[in-house]
Design a protein that fits this description.
The two termini are about 20 Å apart. The radius of gyration is 18 Å and the shape is globular. Strands 9-10-11-12-16 form a five-stranded mixed beta sheet, with no helix packed on it. A four-stranded antiparallel beta sheet has the order 3-4-5-6, with no helix packed on it. It has one domain: 6 Propeller (Neuraminidase), CATH 2.120.10. By secondary structure, the chain is mainly beta. About 10% of the residues lie in helices and about 35% in strands.
Length: about 270
C-alpha cells in the first residue's frame, strides 16, 4: 500500500491471474458475496475505515461488503473463492464469500506481523505476502501512513516477504532486510516473485524457493530487477505476456534522499514525529 499517502477506494490488481477473475480484474458472475449468489466483488476496493467495498464492474453501486476492523491493503482470491487479505493491523486474514473473517497468520515464530501489506496466491495454494516493517506497527498508531513514514525515514530495513502453506499452516521467510517491503506479484511460471522495496526506490526478482535471503546484497536467488526509480514503488501486479505493472505512491522525496547518508539525522527526525 502507499507510503506517504492515505487513499480512498483504489483499484488493485488490474490484470489478476486467478481464474475466478476475468481479464479486467472483476469477479466472475456467481461469486457468493454478502448479498448472495451473483454478487460481484470489485477487487482492490478498500478504504481507511477497514471496509472492503463491492460493486459493479463499471465502478458504480459501491457498497461496504465487510469490515475487518483493521486496514486491508491488498488481497487475492483463493481456489475456494475466499479472499485472502493483508490487513496492516490484524495480519493475514481469510474472508469467506459470506463475509466470515478468520486470521490465517498474525505472527512468525512468536514475532508479530506488524504491517501486512500485499498478497498474491500461487496455483499451488501457497500464499506470498509482505510484512513491511518489523519496527513500526500500524496497529500501534492506528495509522498506516505514520508507520510507513517512520520506517522509511529510519531506514532500518526490517521488511520481509513471507510464505504461508495453507495446508499445514507453516510460515517461512522468503526474503528479509527490505526497506518497507510493499507490492508482490508472481511471474507467469510462478517460479519467481517480484517485490517492491519502497524505501530503496527499487524492485526485486526473487526465487519462490528462496529461504531467508537478505536484501542487503544480491544473490543467485535474489537480484535487483530495477533500481533508482523516480518515485516510491508501491503495488505490483502481473499482466499479460509476462508484463509487470508497478505503481508509484508519489515522486521521490528530496528530504529523504538528502538524509540517505545521515543515519543520525534520520533518527532525530524520527524522534521528533
Amino acid at each position: 500500500m502507499n507510503a506517504f499517502e492515505e487513499t480512498q477506494p483504489s483499484t488493485r490488481g488490474a490484470e489478476p491471474r486467478h481464474p475466478r477473475l476475468d481479464s479486467h480484474g472483476h469477479s466472475v458472475p456467481g461469486y457468493h458475496g454478502a448479498g448472495g449468489t451473483g454478487t460481484r466483488l470489485r477487487p482492490g476496493a478498500e478504504v481507511a475505515s477497514g471496509a472492503i467495498l463491492r460493486g459493479d464492474p463499471d465502478g458504480s453501486g459501491l457498497t461496504a461488503w465487510v469490515n475487518t476492523g483493521g486496514r486491508v491493503l491488498g488481497f487475492d482470491v483463493d481456489a475456494s473463492g475466499n479472499l485472502v487479505a493483508a490487513d496492516a493491523m490484524r495480519g493475514l486474514l481469510t474472508i469467506s464469500p459470506h463475509a466470515e473473517i478468520a486470521v490465517l497468520a498474525d505472527a512468525v515464530d512468536g514475532d508479530p506481523i506488524r504491517y501486512a501489506n500485499a498478497v498474491v496466491i500461487a496455483r499451488s495454494g501457497h500464499v506470498y505476502f509482505t510484512d513491511s516493517s518489523r519496527r513500526f506497527a500500524a496497529r500501534q498508531s492506528r495509522d498506516t501512513l505514520e508507520a510507513s513514514v517512520l520506517d522509511i525515514f529510519e531506514h532500518s530495513a526490517t521488511g520481509r516477504v513471507l510464505e504461508l502453506d495453507p495446508a499445514t499452516g507453516r510460515l517461512r521467510t522468503v526474503m528479509r532486510d527490505l526497506c518497507f517491503a510493499n507490492g508482490v506479484a508472481l511471474s507467469a511460471d510462478e517460479q519467481s516473485l517480484f517485490v517492491a522495496e519502497t524505501g530503496e526506490y527499487r524492485a526485486w526478482k526473487v526465487d519462490v524457493a528462496a529461504q531467508d535471503v537478505s536484501a542487503r546484497g544480491e544473490s543467485p536467488q535474489a537480484r535487483v530487477l530495477v533500481s533508482n526509480l523516480p518515485g516510491f514503488p508501491d503495488n505490483l501486479t502481473s499482466g499479460f505476456d509476462g508484463r509487470i505493472w508497478l505503481g508509484f505512491a508519489k515522486p521521490r522525496a528530496e528530504a529523504v534522499d538528502r538524509m540517505s547518508a545521515r543515519p543520525f539525522l534520520r533518527k532525530v527526525v524520527r524522534s521528533e514525529r
